[in-house]
Design brief:
The chain is of the alpha/beta class. It has eight helices and eleven strands. The protein has a nine-stranded mixed sheet, with helices on both faces. Strands 7-8 form a two-stranded antiparallel ribbon.
Length: about 240
């Protein structure tokens, strides 16, 4: 396998499937199977999921809610999604640990870096919930921070498109896909890969990013086996 330890970033919206809100059990099961296949192949897998299918703090702030309060509500939404993924994985016989940046002793461990690394070394899938535990930071930033802390080889950003394009391919049909692109080129072209805080953290810590289509069955395993899937952002 090309990578030993990965951090998989999933958006909360992707869990909706064809629904307009909440969690689609079929999509959840598909993602859990993809993660199980990767883990069974000997890859150490950590996961961060967004919460946009349940609640988005920034949208609540636009509606007049206190931004800090809204962001904490969004963090709790990520924990709900993380618990759902944990349940789906364990239903498939995968050993998991859920660690939260906000203490919730009854349902998950607190985030402790050394413990997270030990779980990964033992072959457990580690899910990180509640973002960074701080308002004003996205789950992209949380994923980047956790990836750096656990010394992951790469961040895999699973989306519903198959990579990075010159423009949004869902809006611009003739947009051109990049197979590889540098961090500098992303900055210069103003492409939207991650939020700028997360993206800069990756650049500063020499952590590559691969953006790929998580909804295509088998894509994650093929990517980990070395196939050129999605778009690689490198140096």
């Amino acid at each position: 396998m090309k990578y030993k330890r990965i951090l998989l970033k999933l958006s909360g919206e992707s869990l909706m499937g064809e629904k307009s809100f909440g969690i689609d059990p079929e999509r959840l099961a598909i993602y859990a199977q993809e993660i199980k296949d990767a883990s069974s192949a000997g890859i150490e897998v950590a996961v961060v999921i967004g919460g946009g299918n349940i609640f988005r703090g920034i949208q609540a702030a636009e509606g007049g809610m206190d931004r800090v309060q809204g962001d904490y509500m969004g963090m709790l939404a990520t924990v709900i999604n993380s618990m759902a993924l944990q349940s789906a994985l364990e239903g498939m016989g995968v050993q998991t640990r859920l660690q939260s940046a906000i203490k919730m002793e009854q349902i998950c461990e607190p985030f402790i870096r050394r413990r997270a690394i030990r779980h990964l070394e033992k072959g457990r899938v580690v899910i990180f919930g509640a973002g960074t535990g701080n308002p004003y930071f996205t789950t992209d930033t949380a994923a980047t921070l956790r990836a750096i802390e656990i010394e992951a080889d790469v961040i895999l950003k699973g989306t519903r498109v198959d990579g990075i394009y010159t423009a949004d391919p869902e809006k611009v049909p003739d947009a051109v896909k990049y197979d590889t692109i540098t961090f500098t080129e992303v900055y210069e072209k103003g492409l939207n890969v991650m939020d700028m805080t997360a993206f800069t953290l990756c650049n500063d810590n020499k952590l590559p990013i691969i953006v790929f289509d998580m909804n295509k069955a088998g894509n994650l395993k093929r990517l980990l086996a070395g196939e050129e899937i999605g778009t690689l952002v490198s140096f």
